[in-house]
Design a protein that fits this description.
By secondary structure, the chain is of the alpha/beta class. About 40% of the residues lie in helices and about 20% in strands. The structure holds pantoate.
Length: about 270
């Protein structure tokens, strides 16, 4: 596996694959790999001739400076992990490489990006859309893999790809969960044992919402009542959204950590 740090290095490394018409698979990440990322890498490996993983903690998509500063980073460990999963190129650009001095062009997604995560984190999806569009332009992938845990992100990126005719497939893989039901997230490492116990209210609330929906009841009310009874957590939102299908979404705060999760309604498994 090669580790590349500049846009030109990536373009040069991919030129032969592009000439041969090979399938280039991209997994955009911010590192701190967990089993969710590993599932994306495996799926990309199976479907592609060349697999590129980008590792870039995109400062523009963080709202709070503290959240960016404490975001977990371990490039060496991630590189070993990527190599073990058959990744060919690991693209690890610096902030200056992707946002050089004078950088002044942004991809502004529309209405889809204004609600829920978009409302809670102003500018977040503009930054995600911009960095993804840049990565798509640099790597020119046939397909890119994302986790369904960030359902709104997947919907926004799909819309950007479609609206801007970027010509790649966006593949979303189901959320990977720990045995206790908590969706894997790089931010889970911040949870104390007590906070982790409290966090389990989130997947339980979504299960309850999904069960209520299947029984013809009110998914939001059922999820809310689990969260309201959970103790020391702050509920930011519980809502129904159309993210490539009806989806029950929720965001909570447990101590300093913000967690999001979702479940597709009308299906028996997520
Ligand atoms: O989901 C993430 O890790 C990030 O939002 C992404 C897609 C890599 C863009 O920075």
């Amino acid at each position: 596996m090669r580790i590349l740090r500049t846009v030109n290095e990536v373009r040069e490394a991919l030129a032969p694959a592009r000439e041969l018409g090979e399938r280039i698979g991209l997994v955009p990440t911010m590192g701190a790999f967990h089993d969710g990322h590993r599932a994306l890498m495996r799926a990309a490996r199976e479907a592609s001739d060349v697999v590129v993983v980008s590792l870039f903690v995109n400062p523009a998509q963080f709202n709070a400076a503290g959240d960016l500063a404490r975001y977990p980073r371990d490039e060496e460990r991630d590189a070993r992990d990527a190599e073990a999963h058959g990744v060919d190129l690991l693209f690890v650009p610096s902030v200056e490489e992707l946002y050089p001095p004078g950088f002044d062009t942004w991809v502004e997604p529309g209405e889809l990006a204004t609600t829920l995560e978009g409302a809670a984190r102003p500018g977040h999806f503009r930054a995600v859309a911009t960095v993804c569009t840049k990565l798509f332009a640099i790597v020119t992938p046939t397909a890119a893999w994302f986790g369904q845990k960030d359902a709104q992100q997947v919907a926004v990126v799909r819309r950007v790809v479609s609206d801007l005719d970027l010509g790649l497939e966006i593949v979303a893989l189901p959320t990977i969960r720990d045995s206790d039901g908590l969706a894997l997230s790089s931010r889970n490492v911040f949870l104390s044992p007590q906070e982790r116990r409290l966090s389990l209210a989130l997947p339980r609330a979504l299960e309850a919402g999904s069960a209520a929906h299947e029984a013809g009841g009110n998914a939001i009310a059922a999820a809310r009542s689990v969260l309201d009874g959970a103790g020391e957590i702050e509920v930011e939102y519980v809502a129904l959204a159309d993210f490539d299908g009806p989806t029950l979404v929720a965001a909570i705060r447990v101590g300093e950590t913000r967690l999001i999760d979702n479940v597709r309604l009308g299906r028996t498994s997520r």
